[in-house]
Design a protein that fits this description.
3-stranded antiparallel beta sheet; about 15% strand; Tetrahydropterin Synthase, Chain A
């Protein structure tokens, strides 16, 4: 059998006509339906995950908001007078303080006057147990006022008392 130039060099062999190409030699085309299905599943997964995290934030139950108790403005004060106490841990030092209690209105003054002995006893107890360093600082005096106010409200049930004022404060 005689060899031709095309048989010697297969790289330069002429391509067969397109009608004779078999399906095994044709490039495989992917179905667009499969591609659309995969893209659709990815989009659904992303939307589902986003909904899982964002829907409760925007449409879920909101945490209860702590309602701020609005106190009535102070319109009257009840003077308790001056109190002198020995300071805690100090033998020769004492504190002289004049205390006034702020209430929302003049009608609340009667309850303060009726409980004046109990309030004075409470003031003496709290002040005599306070440390000198606490009394000397402004922050310490503010804490002392808050403690007095809390104790007056809790121990004596005088919830209408809105503020404690020191009109005289002397440490000697």
């Amino acid at each position: 059998m005689a060899k031709t130039k095309a048989d010697e060099n297969p790289a330069k062999a002429p391509a067969p006509p397109p009608e004779l190409v078999t399906p095994a030699e044709a490039p495989k085309k992917r179905s667009p339906l499969l591609l659309y299905g995969v893209v659709g599943l990815v989009v659904l997964a992303v939307l589902g995950a986003g909904g899982w995290f964002l829907v409760p934030r925007f449409f879920g139950a909101k945490p209860p908001v702590a309602e701020a108790k609005v106190e009535d403005p102070i319109k009257a004060t009840a003077p308790l007078g001056a109190v002198v106490v020995n300071l805690n841990g100090e033998t020769r030092r004492y504190l002289r303080v004049a205390v006034h209690l702020g209430v929302p209105g003049p009608k609340d003054l009667k309850a303060i006057e009726e409980a004046k002995p109990q309030i004075l006893d409470l003031v003496i107890t709290v002040l005599s147990s306070a440390e000198v360093d606490t009394l000397a600082s402004e922050d310490g005096r503010a804490e002392l006022k808050e403690e007095l106010l809390g104790r007056i409200r809790e121990d004596l049930g005088l919830t209408k008392v809105g503020r404690v004022f020191f009109t005289e404060f002397v440490i000697q």
